């Protein structure tokens, strides 16, 4: 939230430290959900197909997020926007919105079933005899 503090030239070292920590933790935890969790939760006979769909959906979401942030981060004043872009909600509001979306994504991650040492077949119910 102290965005105006970090954009001043005197605070550039602190900004780099904050950026580095953000980048590290964004890739350390949530990034694992893009390749480890899909390999654990899909049944063995569908794993490769579902993992591919999951990866493609994640990449499509990254594209939407990157371009959406570019448009949303434009200043509200039409005279200050980059050429060819409509007015947006500003960088500060875009970062707040990004944080809220990330928090919602974290909540959805908790809905993913935990294997707890069971095989994928046991989790999916494939070993049960009808």
Keywords:
130 residues
Can you give a write-up of this model?
The protein has 130 residues and is an all-alpha fold. It has one domain (2-124). 58% of the residues lie in helices and 0% in strands. It has six helices and no strands. The protein has helices at residues 3-6, 12-28, 37-41, 47-72, 91-109, 120-124. The mean pLDDT is 82.
Question: Topology of this structure?
Answer:
Elements: H1 3-6, H2 12-28, H3 37-41, H4 47-72, H5 91-109, H6 120-124
Pfam families: Sugar_tr
Protein name: Inorganic phosphate transporter 1
Subcellular location: Membrane
Contiguous uncertain segments of 5+ residues: none
Q: What is the domain tally?
A: 1
CA-atom Rg in angstroms: 20 Å
Structural class: mainly alpha
Helix content: 55-70%
Q: For the terminal residues, how far apart are their CA atoms?
A: 56 Å
Average per-residue pLDDT, rounded, comes to: 82
* β-strand amount: under 5%
Succession of helices and strands: HHHHHH
Write down how many β-strands occur, each being a DSSP E stretch of 2 or more residues: 0
The total of helices stands at 6
Short overview:
By secondary structure, the protein is an all-alpha fold. It has helices at residues 3-6, 12-28, 37-41, 47-72, 91-109, 120-124. The radius of gyration is 20 Å and the shape is elongated.
């Amino acid at each position: 939230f102290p965005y105006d503090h970090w954009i001043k030239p005197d605070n550039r070292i602190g900004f780099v430290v904050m950026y580095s920590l953000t980048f590290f933790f964004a890739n350390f935890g949530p990034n694992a959900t893009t390749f480890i969790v899909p390999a654990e939760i899909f049944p063995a006979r569908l794993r490769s197909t579902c993992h591919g769909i999951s990866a493609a959906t994640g990449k499509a979401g990254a594209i939407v997020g990157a371009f959406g942030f570019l448009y949303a981060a434009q200043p509200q004043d039409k005279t200050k926007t980059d050429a060819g872009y409509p007015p947006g909600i500003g960088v500060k509001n875009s970062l707040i919105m990004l944080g809220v979306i990330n928090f919602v994504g974290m909540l959805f991650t908790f809905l993913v079933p935990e294997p707890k040492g069971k095989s994928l077949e046991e989790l999916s119910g494939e070993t049960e005899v009808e």
